[in-house]
């Protein structure tokens, strides 16, 4: 049983039959992750683009995946120990700056769907307020932290949320439902047909991550997943369109 159409259309206003595509950290295979350049690349082919949000020492929201800036910039230190000015001085690759969350919202909203991953417990209110100011259409807020999704639901009950997991959870479906989530985002190797069927039986979207080969996309399509995250949205778009052509020819 598939989730209702009103839910599956959250991330794309013109979603093709089958699966929607999320550009993971924008399009990290072709541009520095979580930068405006990566988002522009992702928006060219994806139904939605995804960013990771953290908070600086002085309370600004920026899009960085790791707790530190060491891997993704030419700087060092914890994001939460650096000021916004210090973070903005860093090179995030190819001369790109680390964007503020507000810059991301300005760039993406009304042009593409946006998936926002809350990385840190305690930042939910700030993230929700920024989203409220920019508009909540085509937003999906996700997190590994079930408690963060509870807070989001209290502040922005109209926004769709999703529970991410990479390690086994005794009852991932029950946990997602308990915090009002509408989507389950398992790491690709945690996806199996039993999980998929149970999730759909409870009207939960199933959106695995990160699918970066045609074979992985074919496997997910055969299972009937609703969408997937990928580091290369334009390649993924070609694979999905190829699957649709094969299906149409049958």
Question: What labels describe this entry?
Answer:
250 residues, nine-stranded mixed beta sheet, alpha/beta
Order of helices and strands: HEHEEHHEHEHEHEHEHEH
What integer is the average pLDDT? 92
* Count of separate DSSP helical elements: 10
Q: Tell the overall outline.
A: globular
Structural class: alpha/beta
Q: Could you give the distance between the termini?
A: 23 Å
How many strands in all? 9
Main sheet attributes: strand count, strand direction, barrel closure: 9 strands, mixed
**Quaternary organization:** single chain
Beta content? 15-25%
**What share of the residues lie within helices?**
25-40%
Question: Over all CA atoms, what is the radius of gyration?
Answer: 17 Å
Low-confidence stretches: 5-17
How would you summarize what this structure contains?
This protein has 250 residues and is of the alpha/beta class. It has ten helices and nine strands.
Describe what you observe in this structure.
36% of the residues lie in helices and 17% in strands. The chain is α/β, with parallel strands linked by helices and 250 residues long. Strand 2 (48-55) and strand 3 form a beta hairpin. The radius of gyration is 17 Å and the shape is globular.
What does the secondary structure layout of this molecule look like, with pairings?
Blueprint: H1 5-8, E1 20-23, H2 36-43, E2 48-55, E3 61-63, H3 84-88, H4 101-108, E4 113-118, H5 124-134, E5 139-143, H6 146-155, E6 160-165, H7 172-178, E7 183-186, H8 193-201, E8 205-206, H9 214-223, E9 227-230, H10 233-249
Parallel strand pairs: 1-2, 1-9, 2-4, 4-5, 5-6, 6-7, 7-8
Antiparallel strand pairs: 2-3
């Amino acid at each position: 049983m598939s989730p209702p159409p009103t839910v599956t259309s959250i991330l794309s206003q013109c979603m093709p039959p089958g699966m929607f595509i999320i550009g993971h950290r924008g399009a990290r295979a072709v541009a520095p992750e979580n930068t405006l350049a990566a988002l522009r690349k992702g928006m060219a082919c994806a139904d939605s683009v995804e960013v990771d949000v953290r908070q600086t020492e002085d309370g600004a929201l920026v899009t960085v995946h790791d707790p530190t800036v060491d891997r993704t910039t030419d700087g060092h230190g914890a994001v939460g120990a650096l000021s916004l000015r210090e973070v903005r001085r860093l090179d995030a690759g190819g001369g790109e700056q680390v964007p503020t969350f507000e810059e991301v919202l300005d760039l993406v909203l009304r042009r593409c769907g946006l998936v926002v991953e809350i990385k840190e417990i305690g930042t939910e209110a700030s993230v929700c307020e920024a989203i409220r100011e920019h508009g909540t259409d085509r937003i999906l807020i996700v997190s590994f932290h079930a408690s963060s999704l509870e807070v989001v639901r209290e502040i922005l009950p109209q926004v769709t949320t999703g529970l991410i997991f990479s390690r086994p959870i005794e009852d991932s479906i029950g946990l997602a439902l308990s915090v009002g989530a509408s989507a389950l985002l398992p790491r690709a190797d945690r996806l199996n047909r039993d999980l998929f069927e149970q999730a759909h039986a409870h009207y939960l979207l199933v959106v695995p991550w990160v699918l970066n080969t045609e074979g992985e996309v074919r496997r997910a399509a055969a299972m009937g997943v609703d969408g997937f995250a990928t580091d290369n949205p334009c390649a993924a778009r070609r694979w999905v369109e190829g699957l649709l052509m094969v299906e149409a020819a049958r």
